[in-house]
Fold Elongation factor Ts.
Amino acid sequence: MAAITAALIKQVREETGAGMMDVKKALTEADGDVARAKEIIRAKGIQAAGKREGRKAQEGTIASTVVVADGTATGYAVELNSETDFVAKTPKFVEFADTVLADAVKADAATVDEVLAAPAANGETVKVEIEEAAALFGEHVKIGQVAKISGPHVEIYAHKKSVEMPPSIVAMIATDEAGAAVAHEAALQISAMGAKWLTREDVPADVVESERRVATEKSLAEGKPEKIVPKIVEGRLNAFFKENVLLEQAYVKDPSKTIGDLFKEVGGKALAFARLEVGKGDEN
């Protein structure tokens, strides 16, 4: 039997766009004959994964879990994208998302690149595993957003937009032990209101400066007296913080208090949070 070398596999993958495992099987069946292997791939209807990569994959689901070790809780969330919600809601796709999440947890991955490089159950990397999945599902499949947060307590809220669909929004928040008492309410808030930062100190300086310039220009364009513009600008900046900073947002269930007030009431602290929504990350 002819040796199935890495160079041979690479050649057929580049020429067909098929996944690594499909190429291996085809070459084995063809006893190393490249032309015959390509015929086998065509005959089996294995679509070129490379042809799918240009297609947008903005549907999908988000798999998430909390792992507790040595007194520290760590929340992991991985967005797996497909092209259509028809594929996204199938049990096989949801199960595959859970498999990718498990691989990410084992590798303690915190970024997309780390997830893709993680060892997979099939002996390859998650990147290769996803390429194989594209052939299985017949659509472009990719990793979207990835999040990892840690603390004494981590709460996760997974939101489904409809009963038949898997989670499309996942909110995670890390708190101290006292803060765990209101962590679920905070996670609901994150899911619903989409805060971007935990505290106003976390807002990047360039973002604050940009908002300040916009507020100043808008106030002057409205014909406000120059002497009161600085005060108006500060008011508009505060409104920006109240909209985008979690601890300054009005609590949706009781707007008379903020999320920060909730934590003060129980003597707890929020340490970090993450919010992932299907299709809202950077397009790849």
About this structure: The longest helix spans residues 205-221. The domain at 6-46 is CATH 1.10.8.10 (Helicase, Ruva Protein; domain 3). The CA atoms of residues 210 and 216 lie 10 Å apart.
